[in-house]
Inverse folding.
């Protein structure tokens, strides 16, 4: 069966994280959303996303047997329901479309949907609609993904220099973990192949450290937290997700945050995740183009791909940083920092596109990854689409 994961309304609602990737490429728990669906379906899925992302991510705009909303996180019940959909049925959860059989071609979408029979799914679902849903649902997804891992593999032996608490620690062969405390009594701990936990780290699950990622000496981790592939992390981190290829290499606190790819947080960067009055956190939304009530008491930093901040940067509660922003200086910068902005509390200028290409090329080359022509076209489109926010 051919299944396409379509972005739908979530692409705009999940900005800035989705400026440079489709919704299905986001990581929550151990796996990306697309990897989860591939596992549950036992087959490779494709994606349908924004036109400017279609070339790089091999988007499928043709008619397909089934379309699944990419923000939907799979479990056995919903997968069975979707597999049993019949021709011209549309599955909804509350007011949200979650599956379409068949998924019409892009040009035929509106006419085809109007003729379909609507079914309602009444069960509980995990759905990623907003950036903060990623850290909110990370604990539950970590536990589900951990069960997938341990069902398919055997853990390597733990070095005797470590202190273990609980029985839910899985170490892939090739990982290095020395002289650290791993407490899995509150959730599982997964250390992937070629990842390294340096001496003196303290980890409280649930937690995932993915391939080639590093926890530097003395790092403190409070779960549920995921550190994506090729990340380097130090200091203190709680209930956060780093998508991959990003660094927070030094002391400083990051809590209830989602960090994109190719980001760097300077030494002693700190994020506030709780207001002094303990009220709900307001967060900038690209869909509404204004701040909205997240309905969350805890919310830290949301940062798009390729953004960076200098040493001693302080981010206020619920700060949203776009893609390719460069932030520096003392005091708190604005709570919404548009993409391709360069500056700090005293004001921002535009981060020129040619300069951003130069930096991205250097950063990616350090991981033996090329900044392709397709990448440049994506960044050019993001630059143009976000000009109105730089004002």
């Amino acid at each position: 069966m051919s299944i396409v994961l379509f972005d739908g309304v979530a692409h705009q609602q999940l900005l800035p994280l989705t400026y440079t990737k489709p919704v299905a490429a986001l990581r929550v728990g151990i796996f990306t959303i697309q990897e989860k669906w591939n596992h549950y379906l036992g087959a490779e899925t494709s994606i349908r996303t924004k036109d400017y992302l279609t070339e790089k991510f091999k988007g499928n705009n043709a008619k397909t047997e089934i379309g699944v909303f990419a923000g939907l996180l799979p479990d056995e019940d919903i997968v069975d329901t979707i597999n049993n959909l019949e021709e011209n049925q549309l599955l909804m959860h509350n007011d949200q479309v979650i599956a379409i059989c068949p998924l019409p071609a892009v040009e035929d979408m509106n006419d085809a949907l109007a003729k379909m029979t609507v079914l309602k799914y009444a069960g509980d679902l995990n759905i990623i609609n907003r950036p903060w849903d990623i850290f909110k649902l990370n604990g539950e997804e970590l536990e589900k993904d951990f069960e997938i891992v341990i069902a398919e593999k055997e853990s390597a032996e733990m070095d005797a220099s470590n202190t273990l608490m609980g029985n839910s620690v899985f170490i892939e062969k090739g990982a290095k973990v020395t002289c650290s405390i791993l407490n899995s009594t509150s959730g599982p701990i997964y250390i992937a192949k070629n990842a390294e936990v340096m001496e003196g780290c303290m980890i409280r699950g649930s937690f995932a450290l993915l391939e080639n990622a590093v926890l530097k000496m003395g790092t403190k981790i409070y779960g549920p937290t995921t550190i994506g592939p090729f990340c380097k992390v130090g200091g203190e981190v709680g209930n956060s997700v780093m998508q991959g290829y990003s660094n927070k290499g030094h002391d400083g606190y990051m809590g209830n945050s989602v960090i994109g790819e190719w980001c760097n947080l300077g030494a002693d960067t700190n994020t506030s995740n709780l207001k002094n009055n303990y009220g709900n956190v307001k967060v900038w939304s690209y869909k509404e183009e204004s701040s909205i009530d997240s309905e969350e008491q805890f919310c830290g930093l949301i940062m798009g791909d390729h953004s960076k901040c200098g040493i001693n940067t302080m981010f206020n509660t619920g700060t949203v940083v776009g893609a390719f922003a460069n932030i520096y200086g003392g005091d708190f910068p604005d709570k919404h920092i548009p993409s391709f902005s360069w500056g700090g509390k005293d004001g921002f200028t535009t981060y020129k596109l040619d300069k951003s290409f130069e930096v991205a090329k250097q950063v990616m080359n350090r991981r033996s990854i090329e900044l392709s022509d397709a990448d440049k076209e994506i960044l050019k489109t993001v630059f143009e689409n976000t000009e109105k926010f730089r004002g």
About this structure: The first strand starts at residue 3 and ends at 6. Residues 138-152 form the longest helix (15 residues). DSSP finds ten helices and 37 strands in the chain.
